[in-house]
Design goal:
2 copies of one chain form a homodimer.
Chain A: E1 2-9, H1 12-15, E2 24-29, H2 49-63, E3 64-74, E4 78-79, E5 82-83, H3 86-97, E6 100-109, E7 125-132, E8 146-147, H4 151-160, H5 169-172, E9 187-188, E10 193-196, H6 212-221, E11 227-230, H7 237-244, E12 248-253, H8 256-265, E13 269-271, H9 274-283, H10 285-289
Helix pairs in contact in A: 2-3
Chain A binds a DNA duplex through loops.
DNA sequence: GTTCCGCATGAATCGATAG
DNA sequence: ACTATCGATTCATGCGGAA
């Protein structure tokens, strides 16, 4: 099997035009959030955000397969003591474009940014908006089943054994990091609230989401050999995870420095022999118990 | 001190007109959600929901004190495989009325309703929208502080004691837990994600939220002697909790059966002995941690 | 090799200060 | 008056170094 990973340098709005209709199984991205500051990464102003994004979502609608899914990670900023409404306006406008707004997952960021203010608490969650092209779409729910039981106890177990599991933590994380418990035969379907910590290590790109986030959705909405697209690929997390999980992927990045970083980290083609596929199976313990 | 609890029978839109301007410190309510079925409780149709609610929120804006807060518990239903957009439209329209949309808390329902669907997971969260009349409002953050979640330091110390404390720890965000064991210096401010279970005892009113929900917001946004309003009081949870916490409260319910149930459960006046106002302010925090 | 502890830092926000 | 910049605040997490 041959897995292709294509990273493009340029503006998504333009680059997307070169991608075929109905060719992508999953789009997952975390676009630059609206920001009033001018010099920040991709700083689109709040009141321009919807108009900036709509031409891109129009292209995304075109390239997505009818059975595909679009996951949009976004959160509105506080402006003048108030939450902005551009995300809500965006949802409403995207529906007019033809998107179905199927679901809103919540990403609960367990380690949110600290701070103390007189009128609000720390912001500890982000939206993961699920859009679809049709009401019927591919969803492999069994791939992301979680062990039954009290979530609180589970989390505590994980935390007390964090040190032991340090090495496995990056590979395994479906919901969090506890892989050893996956041998339990009693499993349940997850809910639409995801508990993941942000990765606060030395990424050069400030806005990377944790690998477990794209990993979870790639498991849920694609199978091996499918194609994943991230039109704001940043440090390339989506593409790296996709390649590791034997999915073809496309990444687009407008900033040359990030583009170069990603190009260095990823080979454009990954050849999988039978042996290597077996190796992947061993690393991803969850797949063993999942129903194909 | 005398605490008054007034329950009214009738339509909120009308009853609210009898309440004075700028007289309420906190409005917290869980209105009937939109529903396509006609015979369900308060079944307002999806596409009529915003127009149905706006006259009520207009009255709420009038009766709320400038320093007050409005907490709206709501979640959009799935209609034809899609999330409805009426909540977002409502937020946008309420801002036009003059409300500030300060924040959106997430209520993570740890024990969400069971079920399995081919195209979605269990819905395990609801919105708690915070609206304000001014950008400055009363907020008593210390009242809802939670124990520090730094288990790393305590991991392998005092295992037995730690285990006991863990159940009350950060995962619960202070809901339904015994706060008396907390030490002041071990506390942290909470985030905008609230973790609490729905109460699954068979209330006659189907849409009751758990007592810990209004309790948390009453602690956060009011002090003793303040006034709390629930324009859709249902089984009276908000008023019962408010009275127990020595807050005046107003409840409005349109369905006579519920109204009667609440009237039976609550005395309209509660007299509190031996309260010294002067001492109260300084010892407020200790009192709360001691009593609860 | 494991366990323990210190520390940097992360899609933040407000309010004060400077231009 | 209005905008741009900066410091203070604050805590879960994972990494690195030490025991």
């Amino acid at each position: 099997m041959e897995i292709k990973t294509d990273i493009f340098l340029g503006d998504s709005k333009e680059i997307l035009k070169s991608i075929s209709d109905n060719s992508v199984d999953l789009i997952i991205t975390s676009p630059p959030y609206a920001d009033q500051r001018k010099n920040s990464y991709g700083g689109i102003k709040t009141d321009e955000y919807v108009n900036w994004f709509l031409p891109i979502s129009e292209q995304l609608l075109r390239v997505l397969k009818p059975s595909g899914t679009f996951i949009l990670n976004i959160k509105e900023k506080v402006v003048n003591g108030e939450r902005s409404t551009y995300v809500m306006e965006l949802i409403i406008e995207m529906r007019k474009q033809g998107w179905f707004w199927t679901e809103e997952f919540i990403w609960h960021k367990k380690n949110s940014y600290p701070g103390k203010w007189p009128n609000r608490f720390r912001d500890s969650w982000e939206r993961l908006l699920q859009f679809n092209k049709n009401k019927k779409f591919n969803m492999y729910q069994e791939e992301v089943m979680v062990p039954m039981g009290d979530w609180a106890k589970n989390r505590l177990k994980k935390l007390s054994e964090t040190d032991k599991k340090r090495d496995e933590s990056k590979v395994g994380s479906g919901f969090g990091k506890n892989i050893s418990n996956w041998l339990n035969r009693d499993k349940a379907y997850p809910t639409n609230v995801l508990h993941l910590a942000t990765e606060c290590n030395n990424k050069k790109h400030s806005a990377a989401f944790p690998e477990s986030l794209p990993e979870w959705f790639i498991k849920l909405f694609t199978k091996e050999g499918d194609t994943v697209l991230d039109p704001f690929t940043g440090s390339g997390t989506t593409n790296i995870v996709a390649q590791r999980m034997n999915r073809n992927s496309i990444g687009i990045e407008i900033i040359e420095d990030y583009y170069n970083i990603v190009k260095e980290k990823i080979n454009s083609t990954k050849y999988i022999l039978f042996r290597q596929e077996g190796k992947y199976e061993k690393t991803e313990q969850k797949r063993h118990t999942a129903v194909r």
